[in-house]
Amino acid sequence: MVESIEKDETGQKFIYSDTGVKVFVDFKDNLIVDPDDPLIASQARNWRYSKGLVKGLSCLGSENSEDAMTWNVFKTLEKSNPERWFSEIFPQIILDKDEQFIDPMLKFWDKYFPPLLRSAPEGETHADLTIETSNKLIFVEAKYKADISKKTKHDPNRDQIIRNIDVGSWAAKKRSKEFYFILLTLKTNTYSIDKLNYYKSNPSNIIEEIGSYRKDIKDYAALCENIHVICWDQILTSLQNIQAAHKTALNYTNLIDYLNDKLF
Q1: Mean pLDDT, to the nearest integer, of 82-110?
Q2: Residues 107, 132: contact at Cβ < 8 Å?
Q3: In whole angstroms, what separates CA 169 from the centre of its chain?
Q4: How far apart are CA 178 and CA 156, in angstroms?
Q5: How many Cα atoms sit within 13 Å of 52 on the Cβ side?
Q6: CA-CA to 40 of 20 to 30 Å: which in 9, 25, 60, 107?
């Protein structure tokens, strides 16, 4: 590995993977906010490359890491009042007048379990980002250079979107809350977007996948209405709008520069 290490213009060490992806030797060099937080440190330890030139390095160090992007964007936003940014970032989700954010409002990589009546074996789901209010549970699945997974470990017909919808709506049901699912991705990830729209456009497409054991869902049409796509460039535009309107005392310049670098 030592022979493969290079340095960029700032002196940060990295290695190119076998497929040509830049991976920082120290994952913290890939973060712009709270690099010493115990949660991100735990995530870095748990997810490492198992082979190739970058064997042993944290996946969080990859320039293509969706976890790093999710952390950089939403951990930065977490530091300011959500009333200043939530509706701008998630315009599809309308909060009730008396709705309150649960503390902590943002949860990264929380574990959720499949519905009890699902007969096929399935492990826990790690939601990239969970946002919880007094009335709503919101799952955000973040994708960057890759499309969604088309299958799970035990089920070749269960894609990542329907798994999130199934597991998330079950978790919301147990909390007596309304469920929302957001796919956060690049516009170029057309397979992921088309698959989400396939489920969103027709309740019967979801029923076909989970209806046999999800008798607790009484209104599949309402569930479809709460499924949305947001693209990373929309997040960037929203941040620029917030910054221009001076809606928050927190300076988003570093985050805006970061996303500009990732997207263009």
Answers
A1: 94
A2: yes
A3: 16
A4: 29
A5: 15
A6: 9
pLDDT at 249 over 70: no
CB atoms closer than 10 angstroms to residue 56: 10
Question: What pairing do the DSSP bridges indicate for beta strands 227-231 and 178-185?
Answer: parallel
% of the chain surpassing 70 pLDDT: 97
Gap between the Cα atoms of 208 and 212, Å rounded: 8
**All structural domains of the chain with their residue ranges:** 2-63, 70-233
pLDDT bin (cut points 50, 70, 90) of residue 109 is very high
C-beta of residue 130 within 8 angstroms of C-beta of residue 140: yes
The predicted model scores a pTM of: 0.96
Mean pLDDT of 182-196: 99
d(CA 214, CA 200) in angstroms, rounded, equals 17
For CA atoms 157, 163, 169, 170, give the dihedral sign. positive
218 vs 35: CA distance, rounded Å: 43
Q: Residue 83: its pLDDT value, please?
A: 87
pLDDT at 2 over 80: no
Question: Interior CA angle at 102 toward 96 and 108, to 5°?
Answer: 120
Radius of gyration of the chain from its Cα atoms, rounded to whole angstroms: 19
Question: For residue 38, is the peptide bond before it cis, meaning its omega torsion is within 30 degrees of 0?
Answer: no
Q: What is the pLDDT of residue 246?
A: 74
Of 251, 243, 258, 236, give the one whose Cα is nearest residue 32: 258
